[in-house]
Structures are given as C-alpha cells and as structure tokens.
C-alpha cells in the first residue's frame, strides 16, 4: 500500500506538470498543504522532501518552497531518448514517419557522421508526440552502417532507440547538443499544429556509440510551450558552453 506522503508527492508532481504551480512560483505553505490533504505537517514535509530531492522544488531556510522545474524538463546530464523521457513523466510517447529516403551525404553529413561525401545516408522526418499531442519534429540523418536497421522499423514506432537496441544491440552512449531558437516555417507549423513563425526550441545533436562512432545527427525542433531543458553545472563540472550563433 502506498504511503500517504508518497501519494501527496505524486499529486504535487502532477500539479507542477499541469502548471498549477509554474516554474518560479511558490508552493503553498506546509500548514495550507496539510489542511488541503487532511494530514499532518510532518507528512507534508516528507512529500516536499521527495520533490526537493528530485530537483523539482528548492527552498531557502525560513522561506516557502519555490518550483524549480517540472518533469517536462529534461536534463542534459543524462542521455535519454524521447520515449524514455516521456515514460519517466508517466506520459505516452507517440510518433510517425512523415518522409524517409536515402540521399548522398552532403559535406555537413560527411563531417558530422565521419563518412565520405556522397555516401548514401538515410534521412528521416519524424513527428513525435506526448499522449498524441505533437510536440517535436525530428530531422535525422543516419550513418550508412545503421541505416538499413532504421529503415526496417515500422513508421509509428514509439522508440527507435529501444528498437535498435533490441534488433542490433546498439547503445546510444554519447551526445553533443547545440541549442538555439528558431521560428516555425510552413512545414514545421503544419506538422506541429501551430502558427507559422511561432518560436521553436531547436536542438542539433550528434549521437555516437561508446567507441565514438557516429550513429546519427539530427535537427530536433520542440514546441516552446511543451518542452524545456535544464543543464546542471558546478565549479568542478560544467556541461554548458556558450558559443556565438552560426
């Protein structure tokens, strides 16, 4: 049987996900939460401690808790697929392939995937969703050595990462991400169900195996109202680098 403080913690997580408590806002005081849930302040304190440990909320001594993030935030401290991230939130990942075709590797493809220019590589345009709501466009270019395995995957596969692991044993081990903002063009707007020129969060990434062999490079565009990212750094370990736009 689930303990009461665990139930309250889960209800608070869902409330944060629904933006009943938005990032930067204050949670109600412990006495108010205790009255709302009909429990003691000690039980509330246990629930709040769980959310603090997860990084969803923070506090300063003598101050009310501040919402720092929601489970819609994904940290770059870990490499997770879209489906893994969705499942961690208790959401259903969906997806379907819009276009899929082989093209000769461009100069950019060749550099990113460490291939000879002109090598046939697989280009895939995929729409990803949370509970059926489109939130992400993936424009992915797969290296020639993994392209046949990707091509054989059904168009509505929820997790290409998981399927490639099951079919080939491939593990996506390392990722380099470049983040910026772009405006939605006509195709982006149509596929995501948003207005043209709406802001999108773009993440360009190259993913490799444990041995450093490039598997794919992708231009991922997220609806800015649906997803955010977080980067945790410290004086000893800084995963975030500032670069000029290009």
Automatic annotation (TrEMBL):
Keyword annotations from UniProtKB, A to Z: DNA-binding, Transcription, Transcription regulation
SMART domains: HTH_GNTR, UTRA
UniProt domain HTH gntR-type: residue ranges: 2-71
Descriptive protein name: GntR family transcriptional regulator
Transmembrane intervals: none
Keyword Lipid biosynthesis: no
InterPro entries listed in its UniProt record: Bact_HTH_transcr_reg (IPR050679), Chorismate_lyase_/UTRA_dom_sf (IPR028978), Tscrpt_reg_HTH_GntR (IPR000524), UTRA (IPR011663), WH-like_DNA-bd_sf (IPR036388), WH_DNA-bd_sf (IPR036390)
């Amino acid at each position: 049987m689930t303990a009461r403080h665990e139930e309250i913690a889960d209800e608070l997580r869902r409330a944060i996900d629904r933006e009943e408590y938005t990032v930067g806002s204050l949670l109600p005081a412990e006495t108010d939460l205790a009255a709302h849930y009909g429990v003691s302040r000690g039980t509330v304190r246990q629930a709040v401690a769980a959310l603090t440990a997860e990084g969803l909320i923070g506090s300063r001594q003598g101050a009310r808790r501040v919402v720092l993030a929601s489970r819609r935030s994904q940290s770059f401290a870990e490499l997770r697929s879209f489906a893994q991230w969705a499942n961690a939130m208790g959401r259903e990942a969906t997806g379907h392939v819009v276009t899929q075709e082989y093209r000769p590797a461009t100069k950019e493809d060749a550099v990113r995937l460490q291939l000879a220019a002109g090598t046939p590589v697989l280009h895939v345009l995929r729409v990803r969703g949370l509970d059926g709501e489109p939130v992400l466009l993936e424009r992915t270019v797969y290296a020639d050595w993994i392209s046949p395995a990707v091509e054989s995957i059904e168009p509505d596969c929820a997790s290409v990462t998981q399927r490639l692991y099951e079919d080939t044993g491939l593990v996506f081990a390392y990722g380099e991400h470049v983040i910026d903002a772009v405006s939605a063009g006509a195709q982006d707007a149509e596929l995501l169900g948003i207005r043209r020129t709406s802001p999108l969060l773009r993440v360009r990434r190259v993913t490799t195996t444990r041995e450093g062999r490039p598997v794919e490079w992708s231009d991922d565009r997220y609806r800015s109202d649906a997803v955010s990212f977080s980067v945790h750094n410290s004086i000893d370990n800084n995963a975030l680098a500032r670069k000029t736009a290009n």
